[in-house]
Design brief:
Its main location: cytoplasm. Keywords: Cytoplasm, Cytoskeleton. Residues 103-126 are annotated as: Disordered. This protein is an alpha/beta fold. It is built from 18 helices and 25 strands. A hairpin with a 6-residue loop joins strand 6 and strand 7 (251-252). Helix 2 (28-40) runs antiparallel to helix 7, helix 3 (52-62) packs across helix 4 and helix 7 (143-152) packs across helix 9. The longest helix has 23 residues, at 512-534.
Amino acid sequence: AAPVRLWVKTEPFLVGVLPIPPPARLGPHYLRKMAVYTRVRAAEGCFPRLSWPRWRHIACGKLQLGRDLAWLYFEIFHSLLRRDPPRRLEWAETEAACVSADELERERSKVGAPHPESGGRGESPAHPNAFFLSPLGKLSVDTLQFLLFLCIQQMNKVSLRRSLIGEEWPSPRTKSPSLSGKSSSDNKNWNDQEHLAFVQSHLLDMLELLLEPEQLTASSHSTHSSMVSYEAVCALSFLIEGTVSKSRTVHPLHELALWQPCQEPNGYSKLCRAFSLPKLESWLRSCLTTNPFGMSACLRAGKKLAWAQQVEGTTRRAKIACNTRGVPEESSMVIMSQVYKQTLAKSSDTLVGAHVRIHRCNESFVYLLSPLRSVTIEKCRNSTFVLGPVQASVHVHSCDTIRVIVICHRLSLSATTGCTFHLLTPTQPLILPGNQAVSFAPFHTHYPTLEDHMAQVGLATLPNRWDDPMLVCRESGDRSVFSLMPPSDFYTFVIPFEMEGDTTETPGGLPQAYQKALSQREQKVQIWQKTVKEAALTKDQRKQFQVLVENKFYEWLVQTGNRLQLDSLVPSAVGSKQAAG
C-alpha cells in the first residue's frame, strides 16, 4: 500500500468554481499560453504573483473577457481565503469609501493600496490561497495557484456526449450517493467523485501549467525529462492534501511530497530541488483516492442529526447529516434533505463555519442562525430560509417560490422561478442562466447575535450591492429576469426566537425609500388605533369588533401560509442548550 493517501480538496471546487460552463478562452490551450506569458513578464508584476492590473490586461486583451468577468474570477479566488476577519473589514471599508466605479478601479490598481492580506509582510510560496499585495504594492494573487483555479473552471464545461444522451456513460464516478438515494452527479460542485475524476483526467494539463518555460516544448507541452519545481508542487497543494498512512493528521501535498519514503517514487531530486514530471504524475495517480471528508463520506458515515420532525400524514422523512468529529475546518459540512411542512430552527456549533447543502425542502421555514462558510439551496419549493452570515457564497439552483434572507459575501442563482432574496452583500448578486421573476430586496431582519456573527466572518454593512445584480452569460442581455421589490410591498421580518445578544435592529438600517414606506404604514396603524379609540364603542361592541378582527387575521394567516409557520414553531429549538447540535 502507498505510504501516503492523497485526495482532492472539496472547498476549491465547492466555493471556487462558477456553476456555469466557462468561457471558451479559459480552455487548456489559452491557459498554457497565459502560463508562459506570466513567466516571461515576471518583472512586470506577472510572476510569482499576478497583480490585478496585469490579470486585467491578460483577461481583457488576450482572452477577450469583459472587465467585470475578469474581476469576478479574481475576486472568487480571493473568497477562497479564510482571511483574518478584521482585515476583511478593513478592505470593506476601503471599498465602501469609493464613490464611483473609476475610483474603485484605481483603488484596486494603485501602488500601496491597503489590502487586508498584506499586513506589511510577504508570505512563503507554500502558503495556500495567498492573496495580498505584491512587492510592487498592487493587489495580487499567487500566479500558479490562480492558473490552477482557472483550470478547474473546466469542471462545468458542457460535455457533447452528456448533452446528447443526458447522462455520462456509466462509471464509478457517477455513483456518488445522495440523501434521497439517487445519484448526485447533477451538482458537480458538491460531488467529490467528480472532483477526483476531474483532477485525474486533467492532471497532466495542470502539471504542464506549472512548468518553467525551459521545461516545455515549443507547443508548451512537457517532455519525458521535464522537471517540476518544488514551488509548483506547493501551488498544487491548493487542490490536493493527504495523510501519512492511516494517520488522521492532514498535511498539504508539498509536505508529503518531501517525506523521505516518497522521494524515490515521486522523482524528487535534492540537487535540483525539483521532481521528475513522469514520476510525480505516476505517484500522484497511485496515491489519489476519495476524499475522506467529502460529501460521499458525510452521507455514508457522517453523524445523523435529529433536527427535524416527522410530519404526521406523510411518508417523507427529513434527512440531516454532518461530518464526523475531527474533520479539518474547511471540510466541515451539514447536508439536509426533504424537510417538509415544518419549521426547522438551529443555532449550533455544528453549523459554525460549515458548508451547508439544503436539498428538496418544501413548504417549510428553515432558520440556521450561526455563522456559515457556504450554503447551497437546491430543488426547494414554497419555503423561507433565514441564514446566519455566510462568509463565502450562497448558491440557489432550481428552486421555485422560495424566500432567502441572508447577509453573505456572494449570492448566485440559476434556474429559479419566482424567488425573493432579502440581501446584504458587498458583491454583485450573480444571475446565471435560467432564472425567471427574481425579486431583490434589502436585508430586513435581525437576531441578538447577528452582529457578532458578522464580525466572526468579516462581513460589514458597507458596501452593500443587493440592488446591483450582474447578468453572467446573459441571455440576450435580458434584464427583465429580475426586479427590485417595490417599497409598497416591503415588510420587515421578525425572527420569532429568544436568544442572548446585543443586536436589536437590522444592521446598517434600511434604504430611505423602504424606511419611508414602513414609516407611512406605521402612521396608518396609529391613525387606525386612534380612530378605534375615539369611536367610543360599548363593551359588547368592543367584543364583537375584536372577534371580527381576529377572524380576519386568521383568514390572512391561512391565505399567506403563515398559519403553517406558527403551528410548527418550536422556540426551544434555538438556544445555548442546543449548541452541541
